[in-house]
Amino acid sequence: MSEGQKLQFVKPTAQAFVDALLDLSAPVSIVLVGEGPLATEIAAKATASGVALDTHPHLPKAAALGQTRFLVLTEQDGDRLGEQLLDCLDLTGIRVIAPVTARHFSRMPLFVVSIPKAGTHLVYELAQALGYAPGVELPDFPKPQTWYCVEYSNSHTVARDFFVDTVRRAPFGNRHHPVARSPVLFAYRHPFDILVSEAHYYHRDGKTAFAGYFDGLDFDARVRRLMGDEWLLGSLRQRVGGFLPWLDFPNVIPASFEELVGEAGGGSAMAQHRLIWSVMLKLQVDGSVAEVAARVFNKDSATFREGKIGAWRSQLSPLLVEELAENCGPILTAFGYSANTEADPLPAMAAQHAARSLRYASEDFDRIPMTVVPDFMGCNLVRYAKQFYAVPRSAGAVSIDRLSAERLARLPVAETLSELKAILLIGRKAHDRQLARITDAGNVLDTGSETLAYWKETDSPCLFDEYKGYNLVAWRGRYFALRQLLGPVDLSQDLSVMMAQYALGDVLASHDVDDLISQIDGIASAIRLASELSARLGELRKEQGLASERLELERVEQAKREADLNHRIDALKSELSAQLGELRKEQGLASERLELERVEQAKREADLNHRIDALKSELSAQLGELRKEQGLASERLELERVEQAKREADLNHRIDALEGNAIVRLSQFVAGLFRRKT
Q: Is residue 487 classed as helix, strand or coil in its secondary structure?
């Protein structure tokens, strides 16, 4: 059914698509989907190359595609392309050509999670068959097109252990872990078959660290212990149920053992091919479904025992099945399985899982500074922009995302945390040299050659390394750096004489390798600086030439602007002259109006003078009358003064009479008092 199902991803250029179409066997029916510039250009180039296309702005329904065997998708957004690809899930015998996007498997890592004894070797083989390299243990920053375990080197990651426990252990709540922004391939299996496989495997000497826990137990006893163990491994419900939350994460691709095992394991080739096709569509992987399926089932796996589905139906007694169904019913239902021996062995959720699109977390924490190791060698080790920086604690609180590029470049930096620690402990140059020695040692192990202990004193010159265009030579307690362009150099002569024969910097000598390396670095830096200055000078000259050209252009433009301005000034002068003539006419009319206003003003002034004279006469008459009234008032005032004087004289006379009378009476009173006392 699905032997023809194939995916091919090409560069998002019209020529790359046309080249892929020209490789197809003719005649073929090709449907091109899209309405953007890329789709338009592909259609034009294909027509010019003699390739017939049936174009559609949107992906037609499966029924409308009919016998189409070649489908061209032009969507360049990775998530939207993923939705279109998944719409091809039910298309059989189809070849899809699509552009490489940010979601293409070559641009993203893959994480693998599996329940123990649920077909771990199958998902490893599937990942490798899809084209992923085995990275296994996650580095500080994962590589694309590489598969990893979520934690350590064991793919059996219980959801709670990772999503809860690591939040407590890891900095920043472990939100920077790439698993949420990457696809996860999750392998699961019927819990009863897992139990049977455990009972056949865990007791075998050397296969597990806890094999002795089942020593002396037969198969049924091992099954019963594994069913309800509460002291060491936990019950089957606990062991399998701990992986159940993985099904609910939108970036997880569930892959059941029953689908993946195929006909070789008692399953269905149709189910296997459909699962692989859905995985390829979701991960945007190049290749053929049939070719991938042929590489998945590997009997040479270290944990391979039988690789069959439904073994529980014959190896577990009805009583055990009944007990298991009672204890693990919710787990069976959640994974889509049944305890009925006659039920379909494929999980009921398989179709739903296959059609479910992938969604990734959008927040990228690589651009958020995060302290991963505080106070190491007086520095805080900070994870930022896919590198590790050592920030001196003496600088106080520093936000390295706000530092300029120049300041950021002054901090010790490395691509891994261990490398940064080594640099802080022994220095960058020593670290690089030591790393080179280790690399050389590894090469020696591969080739069987013998290493040179160049740090020992030698009686004959010993070439021990090359560095930045120099041969590094050890001889008689000294280390020499000889520029490789010099050819053979005689070291037996006096050092000062030898160095005088060559240009400055061609021959360097020191008793210390680090000092020699520093000298070379200094020369290299000076050469690089001179080269940069020369390049910069060339750029400045080019800029100066461009500036001269721009200046000349500006001068021409200025002349044009001045000519235009003069033209506008002349026009303005003509306009102003016309306006001036009109103003002069208006001025003459205004002068006439002014003369008339002056005559009117003279008339008004004469009338006003006449009225003023009349008012003066009237005021003079009124003044005479007021003076007469004033004279009469003065006479009355004089009469009142005479009368007042008379009244005052009479009053004084009466006061004097009263005072005399009072004195006589007082004397009489005093005399009477005196007589009484005597």
A: coil
pTM here? 0.65
CA distance 156 to 186: 10
Tokens of 677: 């006392």
A 10 A CB-CB count for 382 gives 23
54 contacts: CB under 8 Å, gap ≥ 6: 29, 30, 31, 32
Q: Are β-strands 507-510 and 478-483 bridged in parallel, bridged antiparallel, or unpaired? A: antiparallel
Report the distance separating Cα 284 and Cα 458, nearest Å: 59
Torsion (CA) 91, 95, 99, 103 in degrees, nearest 10: 50
For 601-637, the DSSP string reads: HHHHHHHHHHHHHHHHHHHHHHHHHHHHHHHHHHHHH
Instruction: Domain 6-99: give its CATH code.
Output: 3.40.1010.20
- At residue 238 the predicted structure's pLDDT band, cuts being 50, 70 and 90, is very high
User: What is the token pair recorded at 179?
Assistant: 């698993």
Look up the CATH architecture of domain 105-355.
Answer: 3-Layer(aba) Sandwich (3.40)
Torsion 135-189-92-65 (CA) sign? negative
- Contact between 459 and 449 under an 8 Å Cβ cutoff? The reply is no
Angle between helices 120-130 and 269-283 (to 10 degrees): 60
Residue 260 CB partners (closer than 8 Å, separation 6+): 119, 122, 123, 126, 187, 267, 272, 275, 276, 296
Identify the residue whose tokens are 């003044």.
623
Residues of the chain with CATH 3.40.50.300: 105-355
Q: Where in the chain is the domain with CATH 3.40.1010.20?
A: 6-99
What pLDDT does 285 receive? 97
Angstrom distance (rounded) from CA 132 to CA 126 = 9
Return phi, psi of residue 344, to 5°. Answer: -60, 130
For the ranges 64-73, 75-84, 501-510, 512-521, the maximum mean pLDDT occurs at 75-84
3 state DSSP class of 454: coil
Yes or no: say if 119 and 262 are a contact pair by the CB < 8 Å rule: no
| Residues 118, 126: Cα–Cα separation, whole Å | 14
Q: In Å, how far are 131, 275, 563 from 270, measured between CA atoms?
A: 22, 9, 84
DSSP-derived letter for residue 462 is E
* Span 280-316, pLDDT tens digits: 999 999 999 999 998 886 555 444 445 578 889 999 9
The angle that helices 318-335 and 191-201 make with each other, rounded to 10 degrees, is 120
Instruction: Encode pLDDT of 564-576 as tens digits.
Output: 888 888 888 888 8
